Amino acid sequence: MSFSLLQPLCELPLAFVDTETTGVSPEFGHRVIEVGIVRVHGGRIVAEYQQLIDPRRPISPGVVELTGISNGMVAGQPTFVQQLPRASELLQDAIIIGHNVRFDLSFLHHEFRCCGQEMADCFPRAMVLDTLQLARRRFGRGGNGLQRLARRLGIAPVTAHRALADAQTTYQVFEKMLDTLAGWQTSLADTLIAHGNPLGLTLSRESLLPLALEEALEQRKVVMMEYLDARQHRTRRIIQPLNVRRFRGELVLVAHCQLRDSQRTFKVERIVQLTRMEDLAAPDSAVEIMDRSVDMPPNPSIEVKTPLDSLEPLA
How many Cβ atoms sit within 10 Å of the Cβ of residue 197? Predict the structure, then answer.
């Protein structure tokens, strides 16, 4: 569908989308386990969609801990291809919007191909906007994760890390960021000026990582990592991420561990979340609430015993 740059956003169909996945990268066979879509027209929500999906593979331990979505919850749910008609209906002819949307699109492209289709062919000339890109142009790089950004804008998400809830929060963030323009009367042209070049459905070949990990690597800042060890204990370590490598079909984070004062490796699929140190002191920090249930076993062994010279760099 073609859009006029002069049209106000209130006249355009928008589809806010979010996914939850079994792991961090479709390159390693990870799949979508939940889709959430919020369809908006006239500045109002006109339809919502949420569907758990059977990925036909195990969910990474860190994802289970973060999202609360277990293997038992997705067993027997529709496969991606079975729910595709309804999801496609809500995306059709709309401007697609997400937060760090390239990450979601990388998985959606993979799922469409598994269905024998190309996403770009199903939604020709689709325009894609990213609330992360809007936030970075307004606030600078770093600290623009969806939940933190929402709180910064005065939005209090009820639930995090579930597909529909995050799509709803993305819609609220987008709406709030329009306040500095002309609200829903903002023209598409002015929206693009604030956003920068729109994205398309064609992705670059660069490796796509979750936002928290991507920013931690980019800024080389010390962060607090919540991690599941081999005994499924949820542990915390203060680390400085250095790079991500491949090892035996898995992604491994190489980081300097403050506790050991040495360089260590951690399986990315066991990372629950990374939190900037400056965010830990916030009185309404969600991390502080989660920490109350963190099990800290004595002297937990959480590192991957991997020789660093055997790790392959990401392409």
Answer: 7
Q: How far apart are CA 85 and CA 277, in angstroms?
A: 43
Question: Which helix (H) or strand (E) segment is 35 a member of?
Answer: strand 32-41
Short-list 212, 228, 213, 216, CA closest to 294: 228
* CB 227 within 8 Å of CB 236: yes
What burial class does residue 220 get, using C-beta atoms within 10 Å of its C-beta: 0-12 exposed, 13-18 middle, 19+ buried?
exposed
Name the nearest CA neighbour of 216 among 140, 276, 287, 259: 276
* Topology annotation, domain 9-208: Nucleotidyltransferase; domain 5 (3.30.420)
Cβ-based neighbours of 78, under 8 Å, separated by 6 or more: 51, 53, 54
Predicted model pTM: 0.86
Q: Per DSSP, what are the bridge partners of residue 19?
A: 35
Give me the residue spans of the domains in the chain: 9-208, 212-313
Amino acid identity, position 157:
P
Structure tokens that stand for 160 in this block: 């995090």
How many Å is the maximal CA-CA distance in the chain?
Answer: 62
List beta partners, residue 239: 223, 257
Instruction: Give me the tens of pLDDT residue by residue for the chain, a chain 315 residues long.
Output: 678 999 999 999 999 999 999 999 998 899 999 999 999 999 999 999 999 999 999 999 999 999 999 999 999 999 999 999 999 999 999 999 999 999 999 999 999 999 999 999 999 989 999 999 999 999 998 889 999 999 999 999 878 999 999 999 999 999 999 999 999 999 999 999 999 988 888 766 555 788 889 888 998 889 999 999 888 899 999 999 999 999 888 899 999 999 889 999 999 999 999 998 888 765 554 443 333 233 333 333 344 555 555 556 555
